[in-house]
Amino acid sequence: MVNYEIKNGVVLLAEPFMLDPNFRRAAVLLCEHSPEGSMGFIMNRPTDLRVDELIDGFPEFTAPVFEGGPVQMDTIHYVHNVGHILDDSHQVVEGIYWGGDFEKLKFLIRSQLVLPENIRFFMGYAGWDEGQLLDEMAIGSWVLAEMHQNYLFKSSPEVLWQQVMYNKGDAYSVIAYMPDAPNWN
Fold first, then answer.
1. Residue numbers in the chain where pLDDT is lower than 50
2. Model's pTM, two decimal places?
3. Which of 30, 72, 75, 77 is most deeply packed, by most CB within 10 A?
């Protein structure tokens, strides 16, 4: 069984019976981890909203907005695979970038150089204060998994938690198919 260290670019999978509704069966891409704290985005909570409906002057764009987490739900963040053309992007892992020049992003969208399949928008984020994520890991709230860009850009959000858990193999592949509530057995 492979254990991953907590670092930028890993996936945090909520343990199967986590009671916190903010993170129940969540698959979180960890974008920043340091001794001061951690932050990332829940990849499997799409909304019915589009980014062009939320931001005035944003070009028409059919990309859905995801609930990134319970912190600062009035902010918009984006993760993409076009860091080579979007200035000021921060590489999270190979093929996945966070942020970048917002005005240039709008230009790239208008020019159809960035398409909905290249980017994910998030309202809010998941955040942990200094030591909080390590404490949650110590009590078994999260399972770490390796991130792959297909999880973000190609996988169906509705089955992402299950898919990543299954891909870990061993006992995790059994956990992936556990019902959401034990009384459903």
1. 1-2, 184-185
2. 0.90
3. 30
